[in-house]
Amino acid sequence: MRSVRAAPSDPAEMLLALRNALEGGDALLASGGADTAENETARETVPQHTALVIQTSGSTGTPKRVALSADAVLASAAASDAALGGPGQWLLALPTHYIAGINVLVRSIAAGTEPVLLAPGHFEPSEFAAAALRMDQPLRYTSLVPAQLASLVEAAGEDLDLLEVYRRFDCILVGGQATPPELLERCLEFGLAVTRTYGSSETSGGCVYDGVPIGTAQAQVVDGQIEIAGPMLADGYLGDEERTAATFVMRDGLRWYRTGDTGEIVDGVLRVTGRLDGVIISGGIKVSLDAVERFVRSTGITDAVAVRAPSARWGEVPVIVTTQTADLAAVRADVGAALGVAAAPAAVITVEHLPLLSSGKPDRIALTRLAQVTDS
């Protein structure tokens, strides 16, 4: 067995602790948004091959601890290097208690390069640009969530000097949630090298780039659900054998991670279409909240989030939460025509600010509490 300690919150300290963990020292417990006390983890141990544990409460699910070996996260780094064109220097702009932020540090360690560390806190495009100017290696990379990328694009539209700095990156990885098509279009117009990533803590982060698995990763869609195989898979969930057995399955001699995401593969390219738990039954008809959300966003309500709400008449109904104003009758008519009457939102709730998780994703639990339609 191996001792485990809470991962430090300071990025520079985390870099040192992570290097030690990958070399066989104390494993790290990174609390991805969940509370973890240092004195509690000091008494814990994990299997010898476990180097990293990602604890997360998620946006909709129950807390889980994802156990990752050094081999898994280093396999992820090697696959990423190959996909991007070689090892390079990274700019860290994400929290290091999430796998995407940890990956920036792991890739730096594997490449033997010194990462540039953006100070934690509110993301500012000008500070990001200043940090980018400190990068001195031939190949330069960073990893962002869509909200950060949108901030960069907005700032670049007002300051061409910032745009030139952003163009210095050989690749900007963006993931963690769906990236709006209009944002990707603007990045293309600005000449920014952006790659969409797909993955999770269970896959040591992004293992599918622009719909194509990287390295030796494989993707399949089985009964509508995306499954991933490859050397970057987690060992499972610490202390939860039942969940591990249900989520990681053997098939055709390979170990597959059942993602819980729905998708399709067309001409070898994976497209994520939603979540299995994002489906409601409204009046006996299955309705994909993800499909409702994507369509409403395509109509110009760009920050719309679709959540479920109880209904005395239909059982459950979709509800849209947004910071923008929208005409409910028009939204219902448009969605109904495109996706069916059952998918038409029962309400549009306008808020000043969308509640977000620290990862930048919408806090769907908080949003669902806002959507209490009972007689629609």
Automatic annotation (TrEMBL):
AMP-dependent synthetase/ligase domain mapped to chain residues: 19-213
Cross-referenced InterPro entries: AMP-bd_C_sf, AMP-binding_CS, AMP-dep_synth/lig_dom, ANL_N_sf, ATP-dep_AMP-bd_enzyme
Coiled-coil features, chain-numbered ranges: none
GO molecular function per UniProt: acid-thiol ligase activity
Annotated protein name in UniProt: AMP-binding protein
